[in-house]
Structures are given as C-alpha cells and as structure tokens.
Amino acid sequence: MDGKFRLFLDQAAGRAPADLRIDNARVLDVFGGGVRECPVCVGQGRILGFSALEARQVFDAGGRCLLPGLIDSHVHIESSMLCPARFAEIVLPFGTTTVIADPHEIANVQGVAGVRYMLEASAGLPLDVRVMLSSCVPALPVEDAGAVLEAADLAELMSDPRVAGLGEMMNVPGVLNADTGTLAKIRLAAAHGKRVDGHSPGLAGRDLDVYAAAGVSTDHECSTPEEALERIRRGMYVMLREGSAARDLLRLLPAVDSVNARRCLFCTDDRQPADILERGHINSHLRMAVAAGLDPVDAVRMATLNAAECYGLRGKGGIAPGWLADLVLVDDLQDFRVRAVWAGGRLAAENGRMLSELPQRDPGALRGSVRLAPLPENPFELRVPSGRARVIGIQPHSLVTTCDIREVRTSAEGVFDFALNPGLLKIAVLERHHATGKTGVGLLDGRYGLRGGAIATSVAHDSHNIVVAGDNDADMRLAVEETARLGGGVVMAARGRVLASLALPIGGLMSDQSAAGVADTLRELLRLARTHYHIWDQADAFMTLSFLALPVIPELKITARGLFDVSAFRFVDVDAGRR
Amino acid sequence: MDGKFRLFLDQAAGRAPADLRIDNARVLDVFGGGVRECPVCVGQGRILGFSALEARQVFDAGGRCLLPGLIDSHVHIESSMLCPARFAEIVLPFGTTTVIADPHEIANVQGVAGVRYMLEASAGLPLDVRVMLSSCVPALPVEDAGAVLEAADLAELMSDPRVAGLGEMMNVPGVLNADTGTLAKIRLAAAHGKRVDGHSPGLAGRDLDVYAAAGVSTDHECSTPEEALERIRRGMYVMLREGSAARDLLRLLPAVDSVNARRCLFCTDDRQPADILERGHINSHLRMAVAAGLDPVDAVRMATLNAAECYGLRGKGGIAPGWLADLVLVDDLQDFRVRAVWAGGRLAAENGRMLSELPQRDPGALRGSVRLAPLPENPFELRVPSGRARVIGIQPHSLVTTCDIREVRTSAEGVFDFALNPGLLKIAVLERHHATGKTGVGLLDGRYGLRGGAIATSVAHDSHNIVVAGDNDADMRLAVEETARLGGGVVMAARGRVLASLALPIGGLMSDQSAAGVADTLRELLRLARTHYHIWDQADAFMTLSFLALPVIPELKITARGLFDVSAFRFVDVDAGRR
User: Fold this and answer.
1) Does A385 touch chain B (CB under 8 A)?
2) What pLDDT, on a 0 to 100 scale, did the predictor assign at position A204?
3) Which ipTM value was assigned to this complex?
4) C-alpha dist (Å) from residue A474 to A494, A577, B483
C-alpha cells in the first residue's frame, strides 16, 4: 500500500487538506451530460471529489466552465517543427493535455532511435504524450528512408506503457493482401491489447470489411460523411481532422449525431506552429463544431472521454473522483477560450501563457542526422536527348501532381539548359541519411514560381531526404549544402548567397527554439518566398516541395532514385523518349 | 503469424469461403444506431463483414433482428443453484453469451479453490464467463465462513485473462476508513488495469466521493434514480438490476436518458432457475426497459457495447468486422423473443433450446464440502432463565428483520419448551466447513409458518453454514443430518421423516442436475412448504431462511456463534435479561 494513495484517500475523506479546491466553476459532466456548479477538489494529481473540502490552495473559477483536459487523437508532433517540450508549450495553453502522437517522420529518419527520442523527450512533461508506433517506415519499399521498421523492431517498444498501439496503417494493399510483415505488426499490437490506427481514404465495401477485420479500428482520413458512417458502422472510431492543410471537420460534421458521436474523435494530424498560435488546438475543433451546430456536450466528449476510451487511457477524459486532474477552464461552451489549464493537478498555463518553461531533452545523436555525400561537380545535370521531358505539374491547393509531357531545349550534348527553357524549374532529391550520394533530378512546372534562386528542405515526406528546387544549379547547390550544414532545415538561396533559413537540427525535422520563434521565422520565410521568389499564391512554398517527394500520392513524384510514376508504381526517366 | 488469422482474412477477402452467412437479417448497429438489412458473414468465430460472401453454410434469418450477444454485467451463478455448464444451458437460449460472474458464494465455502472451480468449470463453454474476484470473504470478521480471502490470495488469480477485476466491494467502511487489507485488494485490481465493482446502497456525498476515488467504479445496488445519477456523475457505471428478489429496473429507468445511457448496464445479480425459465434472462431486461419507454438502441447498447467497454471485453458488444460472432436473433425490438443464438460463430441454441448438452467438469473436492461435527444429544437446547427472549421478527417481502422482545415460558430449569410457546420457532446455524461444532440457536417469529416439521439448507448467506428452522428439535436434527448427508442442499423434514429435498452437492450450493430438474424440484419444495408447512405467503420459504444467517442486513440475525445485533455490531444473548 503506497503512502501516496493513502494520503489521497485521507484528502478525499477530509482527514487531510486537499492540495487544491476550484471554486465557482460550472463543471461539465461528460458522463451524464449537463453542467453543474460545484467545487472540484484535487489531491495527488487526481480529483478528490465535489465537496467543499479544506484546501491548501483555492482557485476562483469566476463562474467559468471546467472541462476535462482535451485530447488530440492523432498528431505528428514533427509537423509543428518543434521538439516535444516546445510542442507541449504551444498546445497546453489551448487546453490540450494529452496527445496520441505518431512519430512517423522522425521514425523515417532514425527508426527506433527516433521513436525512443520522442518517448524520452516527452517523458515527464505536463503534456501526456502517448505514442502510436509508426507502421509504415519507409512508406514504400522504393524509398531511401533513414531506417526500416519491421515488426521485430517494434516489438521492444510495444510493451512501453506510453505506447498506445500501432500508428496509421497506410499500407492498405498490404492488409488486403495479407502481407506477412504487415500482419505481423498488427498482430503485435493486438497481442498487447493495443489499438491499430487506420489511414484508408476512399476505402469501402468488402475491402473496408477486410481492413477492419484485420484489426484496424480508427480512421482520420475520411473526407465525406458517407466514408465516416461506413467506418462507424464497422466498429471503427472516426476522427474529425482539422489540420493546417487537410481540413475535414466541417465536411464530416453532418455525419455526427447524438447516437454515433461516442465513436467520433477530434485530431489535428499536422498543424504548423503559426497556425496553432493563431487558431488554437483542439479547442478550435470544439469552437468550430459547436458553431456548426454540434451539441456542446457531444463535442466535449469527442475531445475527451471518447478519445480516452478509444485509446484505453484509464482515468482520463472526465472529471470524477479518482480521475486524473487534467482540467481546462474555458469562458463558455461557444468560444472555448481557454483561461487556465491544469495537468495532473498542477496549473500549467493561464490566459494563454505557460507558467514555466519546460525542460528539453538533449536530442543526442538526432542532432547531426544529415549525412550527405559530398556533391559532385554537376549534381543537377539533366540529359533529355529526345527533347521531350516528363515534367511534374502542380495544381492549386493540392498534393496531387500531374505528369506533363513538354518539349524542352537542350545543348548539343542533350543537356537541359535553364536559359533555353523559361517556365521550367529543376527539382532534385538527395539521399541524406547514409551519404550514398543517390540523387534524383527532375523538372518542375514553373507555375510554382521561384525566380532567381533555390529552396531546399530536409522536411520531405516521408523519407525526409533533402529536396531542392531552383532556377539555377549554383543556388540549388548552395541551398542543399547550407541545409546540410545546419543539420537540416529550410534554406532559401538567391544569387550566390543564403537569403534566409530555419534550422531544424533535431533529425532535420524539428527545432529546439520556441514555437513563437519558429513561427516568426517561418512567416518571414513565407513572406520572402512570395515577395522575392514570387511563389504561386495557390501553393505553400515549403509544404508543396515537401510533398513532391512523397511517392504515395499520385501522379509524378521525385525521389533520390529518380522520378516515380505513382499509378504505374515504377520509376520513369525524365526523358519522355525513354520508359 | 498464425494460420487461423490468415485464413480469417482470406475468408473476409473472399479468397476462401466463409464458414457461415446469415441472410435476411435486420442488423442492429450499436455504434451508429439503427437497423440495416445486410448479410453478416462469419469465419473463425468472428465477423468477416457485410458482403454476400460465398459460405459453406447459410442461415435464413427471415427478416428478424440480429443483435450482439447479450451480457449480464453482474451475476452470482451460484444463485441459480446450477453448476456453470447447466447455468450456461439455461441462459444461452435467452441470448446471454457473456456474464460477469462474482463467485462470492462458492468463495465463502472453498476460497481460492472455489473460485478456481468456477473458472475451470466454465472454461471452454459457449457462454463466456468472466470472473470478478470476491472481495469480501467472509462478509464480516465475525463469520465462520469456509475460507478467508486476502489480497495475497487474490494476487495469483488476478492475472488470469478471464478475471475481469475485483468483485463487489461490500466493505464500504473499510474503503472509507482506508483499511489496509481492503485497499490492498483494490490496488491489486488497479495494478492489473482491471475494474472494481461496487456495492454501496444509500452511499452519497463525500462518502461516495471517497468510495469512487478509491477506484470503485460500478454499482448494482441503486434503488432510486438519484442514487444512480450521483454515481454516473462520479464516473461510475450503474447497473439496472432485475433479479428474483431485488427488482430495481423500473425504479431506476427514469434516471436513464440518451446522454447517460452509455454509462448504464443491465444485470440479474441473483436469479433463481424457475424464474429464468419463466421470465428469461437479459432479454427480459430489454423487453421491460423498452416497454417502459427506453429507446431500443440504447437498451441493446446497455446489454452489449456498454458492458463490453466497462469490463474491457475487446471485440465484444457489437456486430462488426473482426468482432466476435456472438449473435442473437430476436423476433423484434419489443418482445426480444430469442430465435437463435451463436456463440463464437457457432449456433448454440435455437427456439429456446440448446443444440447440445455442455460438458460438465467434475467438481472434485467441492463435492463433500459439508463437514459437520457430530451433533450432541441436545444441539438445539435453549435456556431463557429470565423468561424474556430476543426473537427474530420478519416482515413482508423483506430481508430486514426486527429484534422483538417476547415473554417465553420455560421448564423449571429455564429451558425453552415448544409446547408452552405456540407461535415461536427455533432457528439455528451450525458451522459446517471445519466441523468445529459451533452452533448458534435462537428464536424466530412464528409468522414464518412451518408447522409440524423443519427446514434446513446449506445455502445460508454469506458463509453458507447450515441454517435450520423448525417447531420441534427432532425434525430439526433430521433435516440438518440429511442436509449433511446430501453434501448440502435443502431438506424438509416432518414427523420424523424426510418429506422432500434438493441435493446441492457442489459446495453445498449447486446441483449438477439440469436447470429444468432443479427448477421442478424447487417448485415442488415451495408447494409443499405452503401446503404442508403453511409457510407465510409474504415470504419465500428458503430465501428467507438463507438471509436470516447474513449478519450484514439489520436487525437481528443468527450465526454459528449465536444471535448478532447488526446495528450494534455485537453478539447478543437470546435471554433478553442478559446483554
């Protein structure tokens, strides 16, 4: 019998003073619905009860609403470009006290070590970070990721109490065709009684049956009410995602009713730091959903109890005796403006500000993850002897590209020449994990913009090699070399000098700077991209580049091994005269 | 990767024929609500999906409603007087495919061995029996039970995958006062991530906070809507109990609404075999609740998904791909008349009948549990020198007794004499676990009836010693000795001969006969009790006796150590002239 538990019961029974009493709060009851004015007492990080116990500290809630701490059911922390401590500092003030994080990006860079870093760097934070083990590293066998994760690699991690299951299973064909390695990962999670997250946009009918039958039981990739309802019916939890790019909440909301709401959750998936600072986090989902007509109790349950039930987070998601004192005080159930946030009974943030800076863990070997082979003399030389080239075409606000066939002018030797081809850019991906020197070079639709320079970044889904685009080879080289020198990041080069950069030294993905600092730098980079490079206003300068390297979304993508035709599932030559 | 899982996926994908396809069913969707007509395919005991797959067997549901298998959230199997196999045979045809069983009675007789018997005797049955480890054995320290269960005894059982937690925590003062042994049991369950069932009639306010804070998270003892709502608000699950004696469903139903229904469950607690045969099992809860106005989907969820969530029964409680094929076909969502029951994909019962007899496990040492010391010459001699006696008074349809002070006539030696005291009976409890010879003798209100004979039974809550009542010592002796000879049971003796009996040789509590046989015998015993003994029509002849031995319910009770004043919490003398 540990003394802490005995003290806790003594506090609940009034034999010892409570640590904290919150007075004048309207407490939202996620179990029975409704709001009730009563004191909430806390001891040992847990709720003691609803009586007016004597307490060492009293907080006056001023008639505001007290909710359970909010839960983001699916997030890639790396997408915030912040390390876990800085990420916690940006989301806690918005009331998010727990996240279900899939460290898919860092896993592609550093494998098990990357996942371990995320676990260790988030251990002991007031933000409770639960981890879903990345299921698809690399995304495709044709990719040069930094690591390969097989079931055997995941086995040692799956028993970690903070690991909540297997991350989004993007390898849908692997499940449908009962691929041995894929099934082994799913069975591993099942053997631990843990959940398997899904990722199955568009899947339906018998294929969806098979996917669910295999044990995949959530999905955050629905974009129509029908998709959502088909998944709910199959016992899956459906997440209403509202990220920086992918925004599905309002599209899916018509599917949610008072009967099925308990199978619905909220998530951000990917949200950039400036976006979080401006819109908020899961509290923004609450605001949007309620504004669109969802019952506030149902909405709060989706952000709390439902998520806790889905991921087996005992003692989370409600305000009740014995439950964890993760609490959020909001002005009302409309705007969900957050006034105070307690994590495990401790006041962590007030009026939008953290009360203290969180300790940051030294990333160790994750710093210096960029291992780029020395560049040859002409790394970006491109031969198109036939004079007809495959060019990556881009579309407004979309990650889907086209494969455009264009006439190009070349030197006598058949070498592509920028000067002869206005309206075309080069794009390249350079392997950077194992210094293999592999470099794929292609052509990019000039609609992207980018005049008089180059942009490089080590954030390049999902393998996170260095992707670079430019209108001259010299600036492309400079941008790539500066990215490597920074240990990863985003670099803009123009006319032989570095114009601006954001260092992402942790795995080449995350900064150890504050959210505000990263957001400011990113804003400045985006401003320069528009004013200096005239980047297309229908695209995000950096995110567009990042996804041009992902050979999962159609049609034509670039990898360190060259151009990849996603539909045909094969590499193709830039020269349209060859296969 | 096991071959069974691969075959299962091959069946789901249509690469191999399904084991079963149920056609023309209206499938109730507990996740999204509503009913949808679609095929349901089954393979390897699990749901494959909703497509019309080729199947080796096809079942025509004839437009009836298909529900997930029903779950009884709290039951003492021993109260059916049937061993687990016979119990399974009686409840499966009514659609109950899973029960959360607290083997509290057999644990009081045989301790860990009794719990193990229940686990082993139910292993492999089509009825899924999950066990809550009995938390309060004996019920009180003053009791002569067959065993004492401490946390250390429970520890070896708690990790059993079929053990779902700690059984009903009746020792409320132990929790409120943070008794070390009580907390150790609760912490044991918590350490295994398992649930602790409650039992806290009337508890409210801060005391209820403490009880919930300690980790008790269900209650089946509510009898008012207010009690139910106060528990739901504290994060507890509330069970609507409808047993043979305790009938709370209609009293509690006004508390249930569409918002809080997910925290509500159904249970029987104690239901006698004739009652099950006549009324049904959890399907009777559905029928009653829907007739009283509860939404059918909410009702079915309470009997399925909610219970599965409460007790962490993964893959149970819904009809969806990958979930267990525990299925119940009912005529409609009004009468819930059960037509067919599948357990783990196998047809177990049809039209109220089991399709096969279930194997019964040899109870081994549990047979012969009655170890009674040889009776002395006058075991029931009672001295009341003062001529004023404490008499156990009984009330209509109640387990609560009164302590009546009555004038009694005695022999010159002060010995109670039946002939001089018409309207008074003797009642005695004889220790029968360790042959200690302890015998408590008292007086019982003649209102009970019982003329010209005696009734004895080894079902005597909670210690299950032998309790006997009669209007003459000779028949009392005969009834007790015959009960012991049978290895336990119920015996009626009259004028020197055994009038009728029901043998309960398994722990003195359960029969190995069929439900119908036991029900018939019990009915005959009850008939004789009325016609031959003129037992009061406001009492149940045997249950009243059984509970007169339980020193937990006020006011005056009889134990093997003598009369017990429950409110004063002390033994008292039959002679009212003494303390």
Assistant:
1) no
2) 97
3) 0.94
4) 9, 28, 101
